[in-house]
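Why predict the complex rather than its parts? Because the way molecules touch one another can change local conformation, and only a joint prediction can capture that. The input here totals 228 residues.
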Amino acid sequence: AQKITQTQPGMFVQEKEAVTLDCTYDTSDQSYGLFWYKQPSSGEMIFLIYQGSYDEQNATEGRYSLNFQKARKSANLVISASQLGDSAMYFCAMREESGGYQKVTFGTGTKLQVIP
Amino acid sequence: KAGVTQTPRYLIKTRGQQVTLSCSPISGHRSVSWYQQTPGQGLQFLFEYFSETQRNKGNFPGRFSGRQFSNSRSEMNVSTLELGDSALYLCASSLGGFNEQFFGPGTRLTVL
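Output of the joint prediction:
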């Protein structure tokens, strides 16, 4: 089974609209962390937001918020007021522990295109 | 504050050779992680170093190794290169662990 599933290979959103990028995860750990990264066409990875499994409040960072539904094992990224510069690949990732080591697993990504 | 730097940015090698990639973290960051990104396998975690010790690792063969120096700079070595090692290798640094990592621009390795 996939550890991180991003079911939307590509999405379009109108400028200034909000968009939700889906992410579901699979882990048996009680303590884990969930991340979202942005990768523009230039290639650099940019950290957006982090949610710990014990955090009761949804994480927010400016226009980014993480809709964390623990029981459903989902960690969707919500981008409000989309801008043209938001066009990029978006990766969901999970940190968990396995065999005494922490490791990070990434989803396959969602390509977001913002339309003027 | 300077960002994460990786050298070289591009590299071409042939099968069987070995390669060493370098990563200089943000000043003050003690954790350095390495990732491989390919079109087929996506982003995969290689290993993380903290205070000169490999603290965490992914599921890569022993041909992939790394080290970290006392100034937190890190190197990654791949021996006996295979065609499938062609990838973008990303390095990321943080104050500690995987929270809020800052990534470098990557080294694009092509194996012929």
